[in-house]
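HUMAN: I'm a chemist; might I ask for a sequence paired with its structure tokens?

ASSISTANT:
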Amino acid sequence: EDLNGTLDFDVNFNELYSESLLGSEEDVPAVTDYPRSISPKKAGTNKGAVNRFNIGIAGSERVSFTDFAPHVFRYLRTKIYHVSDSEYLQSILSGVQLAAGVAGAAKDVVAKFSEGRSGAFFFYTPDSKYLIKTLTREEAQLLIDTLATYVEYMQQNGHKTYLTKYYGLHSVKMYTNVIYFMVTANIFPADKATFETIKERYDIKGSWIGRHTNRHLFEERLMKDEDLHRELQLDADMSAEIYAQLSKDTQFLQNLHIMDYSLLLGVSYQRIDTQRSVIQSVDSRHQTELIREHAEQEYDRDGLQQLQNEDVLGVSLAGHQQQYIAKANIVEGPGVYYLGIIDMLQKWNTQKKMEAFLKVHFRCKNKAGISCVEPVFYRKRFLKKMKKMNIAPKEEQ
């Protein structure tokens, strides 16, 4: 949607961001760089902790835009994730007129929030590298409360963790309504062609009650735990490595009393040319090189390839009646997995405890199968589900 001409902006965004976003080197955040609260009265007066300014939109009242912990998030972006300011701004500003600068990006976001939508929703940046998602007030406050611990963890695990990568936390106030939203990395590939190879998507929690969607693979829509009926085809070393990191990541979340998170799994289908490819044997799992030149192939009068008692994917065809066999030129199936932990902003609080009590004692649900359980059990069940998916230590594979 072209927003040019519909927005009237009269604040110099680039000056406001010159220190927090466009500076040279970003040092390790100081205590004063972390806001104490998302509430304006409690956040603190240090400019490094919170930046606030107004945005004018034609035909509407001015709205207040808040940037929380700008120095902290810039440190994460540039020092931990190794994304430069120019790369990040290019993604955020993609499709926005250069003259508009950072202002154009903020106005674009505000315009989306002012289109009359209600409830939580999300959208991607134009280049699909980042996800912008709305948060409840409680989720935004939890992000602020755990941000210092999160930064410390990312300093040690940022290059290998499966936790969601946070890039920014902001809010806009329109009339009397305040909308909080965060910017995170997109777990799935940004490239459109690569993204389209993902044929299966799952949200895995480890619970089973209410975790079935009645959807089918060909729909290519998000499914849940009980829709996944097969193991991931992973090398034993890779499987153990992923499990070890997931165990570490979920221990971090457990220490923060966080539960209700999910593993977002994308299954990318790969195509293998059986005529000239190195493919994996079904029986022995040893790689077998099947090189077939079209000039050497013999075809019968119906156009079907005559199979000369060959091994196809490690399965011998000797003794089979040839008229009942036709070999596929292309084999397609799961080949690459994309995975990451999402929805990490739900604490085991009084509300969740009441929800669990009502489901178990009034709706007679199995307390081991509901999503709403305390963090220690949640993690244990989550990792048990990983093992069932063939993400497990070597000794349990």
About this structure: The chain is about 25% helix and 20% strand.
